[in-house]
Amino acid sequence: MNIRMTRNALLMLAIAGSALLVGCTHYVKQADFDAAISDLRNTDQRLQQQIDGLKADMEQRFSKYDARLTQLEGRIRVDTVAHFDFNESTLKEQDKPMLDEFASVMREHHSAALVTVEGFTDPAGSRAYNKRLGKARADAVGNYLVENASMPADQVRAVSYGEDTDRQVQKGMTRADGVENRRVTLVVDFAGA
């Protein structure tokens, strides 16, 4: 009995010791943790500098267009890059030079950037119809950027917000009064590697 208890005790000690050793393999030293945090902060700071540089470059180049730039949470939004006639998704000639300039900035300085083209409508029409119309507008701009402005297709994506009230420039306005709602904006989601 004594030998059996000793074996069980030794077995239990061996299991407990193994568990302690396994637990120790997941231990992170304070110096390693601090180094990882420092690396993350440096990366964040570097990305923020790239985004700041992109915003400054775009502000300089787009000052002649009716475009407004906003920076939010690591992204840059270029508002009012294209406006559309009521119930239309055809890109206007007057909007093409600004899109060409945008694509040029992206190719020259931020070739790894991912651009989201956001399509919007005024609230006339059904919600489902406006969602489709917003997508057609976003596709028109996205296709132009890829086909005419030489942006890589895998870096341009199109989404529709349709008539979403929280995204309307002129709340509830339609037809001639709602022209600001019928638009496409560009969002630079990633400033580069």
UniProtKB/TrEMBL annotation:
UniProt domain OmpA-like: residue ranges: 71-192
Location in the cell: Cell outer membrane
Coiled-coil positions: 37-75
CDD domains: OmpA_C-like (cd07185)
Protein name: Peptidoglycan-associated lipoprotein
PROSITE patterns per record: OMPA_2, PROKAR_LIPOPROTEIN
Keyword Membrane: yes
GO cellular component: cell outer membrane
Signal peptide: 1-21
Keyword annotations: Cell outer membrane, Coiled coil, Lipoprotein, Membrane, Signal
Pfam families: OmpA (PF00691)
Species whose genome carries this gene: Dokdonella immobilis
